Amino acid sequence: MTASGVRVRIAPSPTGEPHVGTAYIALFNYLFAKKHGGEFILRIEDTDATRSTPEFEKKVLDALKWCGLKWSEGPDVGGPYGPYRQSDRKHIYGEYVEKIVAAGHGFRCFCTPERLEKMREAQRAANLPPKYDGHCLNLSAEEVSSRMTAGEPSVVRMKIPTEGSCKFTDGVYGDVEIPWDAVDMQVLLKADGMPTYHMANVVDDHLMKITHVARGEEWLASVPKHILIYRYLGLEPPVFMHLSLMRNADKSKLSKRKNPTSISYYTALGYIPEALMNFLGLFFVQIAEGEELMTMDELTEKFDPENLSKAGAIFDIQKLDWLNGRWIREKLSEEEFQHRVLHWAMENDRLKAGLALSQSRISKLGELPDLTGFLFKSDLNLDPSAFAKIKSPPEEILEILNTVQPDLEKILEWNVESIEAELRAVADRMGKKLKVVVAPLFVAISGSSRSLPLFDSMAILGRAVVRQRLKLASQAVASLVGPKN
After folding, report:
1. 63, 264 contact by CB (below 8 A)
2. Is residue 464 in some structural domain?
3. Which of 112, 361, 411, 439 has the most CB atoms less than 10 A away?
4. Predicted pLDDT of residue 1
């Protein structure tokens, strides 16, 4: 333990591209640890076995390292309270779940997914919040034993008090009270033997001696479940702090459907990590006008967790651009600037792969900027006329773009082979030739109908940049189609 005893953690799930919201929460925890002379820990929460992948875990670690955050314990550096990956801790949770069941605070539930879905449909139809109806709550010990012996799949759920409310003090929101009848009988252990997020979260925070849990405000409603688990296990809960969600300028929730949210998008466009951390860190400090440009040490000095805003953190891309420009102009020496440019161009083998694909397609080096420039542009500035040479009518182009976007999200391993396979499958499902599907994609991705090979280009650019370019292309083509009647 540290001299202060403070131990905080960031616990991302490796189920997608690392989100700027993860960096936002991680930075708060990092600053909190530095301010109190404590420890900052990284734990990978991969209880969702169907969506968690090694590729996404690597992206999480790489993204947080790019942000300049350093952890003293984690899956890559080890530590005294490991393992730091929940799938490697699967053997730990069973005894805690059984303790809850043995004390009468949990029960076996044999409800099938079909029954649960019908239950939720009926609740929605009656304008009731969907939650478990207690169908298996009072099964006898004999029936439970018989059904388990027969191999019938089951989960373990927690019991919830039937009266009163859960009262707790949040480090940001102060005193909070949530009625118990608003809390669901949460599944603690899934049928495959893996714990749910809620169960593993509590057990791991206890075993890793976490003193303060700082996370997004969307988890505020889960605190009663977590407090109950601590109580059922006879453990002392940590201090909870729930930070306001980052939002768009219109106050809507920051999401990839509206704006780029992946850290990899901002790295690809040439934002520098100090500027992004500076931008996010301003949500946690009180400063006077003119003091906006701040290093990590300066953020730590000004950091005051007792004086946080609950108004919401607005992700203002123009302010980020302004800060990034100031960092480039004011904080980087000429030599450092040149080093950053070269490092950025080489990221993910962008320059190397782009040159390799270009070599057989040019007759002189001066053609390289026109052929490969799209790999380095932050915005193609597409307008509807860019699609004029494509034989398909605008309606068909828009259909292709709108169909391709969600289908590409299904790809787990983002590489040339998986991209090609998915686009061929899209063409088959749409009943179109592959060349008809890829024609508008060439323009959407490169800004030109003559470019480097499409699948390779998409792989080089990365999932986040491709997502944004397809979205902007759809908007450009939609203006040709006009509004639906």
Report:
1. yes
2. yes
3. 439
4. 46
The range of the structural domain enclosing residue 149 comes to: 88-243
In the residue annotation, 256 being an active-site residue is answered as yes
- Domain for residue 343, yes or no? no
Q: In the block, which residue shows the tokens 């976490």? A: 210
Helix (H) or strand (E) segment spanning residue 455 = helix 454-461
Here the CATH number for the domain that contains residue 320 is 3.40.50.620
For residue 242, what is the DSSP state? E
Identified catalytic residue from 256, 331, 377, 432 = 256
Q: Are 457 and 421 in contact (CB under 8 A)?
A: no
Place of tokens 């161009």: 345
Each residue of 374-413: b (16+ CB within 10 Å) or e? bbbeeebebebebbeebebebebbbbbbebbbeebeeeee
Sign of the torsion angle spanned by Cα atoms 380, 384, 389, 395: positive
Please tell me the distance from the alpha carbon of residue 214 to that of residue 217, in angstroms, as a whole number.
9
The parts of the chain modelled with pLDDT lower than 70 are 1-4, 256-257, 310, 482-485
Residues 6 or more apart whose Cβ sits within 8 Å of residue 381: 447
Same domain, 239 and 251: no
Question: Does the residue 340 lie in any domain?
Answer: no
pLDDT at 463: 93
Residue 341 falls inside a structural domain: no
Angstrom CA distances, 468 to 12, 52, 54, 326, 420, stand at: 23, 23, 24, 25, 19
Q: What is the pLDDT of residue 40?
A: 98
The pTM (predicted TM-score) of the whole model is: 0.92
Find how far residue 307's CA is from the centre of its chain: 26
Query: Of 331, 365, 385, at which residue does a domain stop?
Result: 331
- Annotated ligand binding at 118? The verdict is no
110 and 70 inside one domain = no
Sequence-ordered strand ranges (E) for 228-271: 239-243, 246-247
Tell me which of 188, 216, 243 is where a domain ends. Answer: 243
What is the pLDDT, as a whole number, of residue 375?
96
Query: Does one domain contain both 60 and 135?
Result: no
Q: How far apart are CA 57 and CA 17, in angstroms?
A: 9
